[in-house]
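Exam prep: given the inputs below (a chain plus FE2/S2 (inorganic) cluster), describe the expected output before reading on.
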Amino acid sequence: MNALRLASRLSARASAQFLPRGAAAANPAAAAAVGMRAAALPAPQRPTATNDSRRCYSASPPAPKAPALHELGSVDHGFTDDRVDRIAEPERRAFTYLLLSGVRFAYASTARVLVVKFVSSMSASADVLALASAEFDVSAVGPGKTITVKWRGKPVFIRHRTPAEIAECATVPMSALRDEESDDDRVLKPEWLVVLGICTHLGCVPISGAGDFNGWFCPCHGSHYDVSGRIRKGPAPLNLEVPPYKFTDEAKILIG
Ligand code: FES
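Solution:
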C-alpha cells in the first residue's frame, strides 16, 4: 500500500513539472497534489498592449529625435521665401504699384459706367422727350382766328388777335378781374395769344369765339373768358393757363 502511495506522488510531481503556471493556477488541486499552494503562486502574466509595444519597439531601431521649433526658426518657410524685399527691389515695387493702380482704375471706370447707365435709365426716353415740345406754323392763321393744337395730350388755343382786341384787353382795369393779370404779362407778342384750352373750373374745353367777352365760353357751368384768356364771369377761379412757348421764327411757335 505504501508502495502504491509513493508511486502516485512521484507520478503527480513528475506531471506538475510539465504543467504551465497558468494551468497550475487554474487547477489548484493538481498543484496541491504536487505540494504547491495556489495562493502562493505568482499571478499569471497576461500580455498587455504596453508589453506588446515594448516588444515591438525593442525590435526596431530608435526613432531620431525631432528638432525643437526654436532650432528651426519659423516653420512658415513660404513666407520668407516668397517675401518681396521692397527696399532691395524698387523696380518690383513700381510694378506692383502700377498693377494695383490699373486694377483700381478699372474698378472705378466700371462703377462709373454702371451708375451712369442706372441714372440714365430713369430719365425720359427720346420719344417722350420729342413729345415734350412741339412746333407749330401759324402763318396760315389770319387775324381774329383761333386754332386748336395738341401738346402733351392737352388742347392749346393759339389766337391771332386783331389790333382792336389787343387795345380792348389793355384797357381792362385790374379791379374788374378775378385773377388779376395784365395782358402784357400773358403774351410774348401782342397779336398772338397762346393758352391751354382747359377750363380752370373743372377741366372742360371752352368754346372759342363765344361768351360775353368774345373770347372763350365754357358751357359746362357758364364761365366766360376774354380774348386774353382771363376769367371775367362764371365759376372758374383762374385765368386760362399760359404754357411755356417761344417763337422760333416769325410765324412758328415752339410750345414746351
Ligand atoms: S368746367 Fe368750365 S365752367 Fe365748370
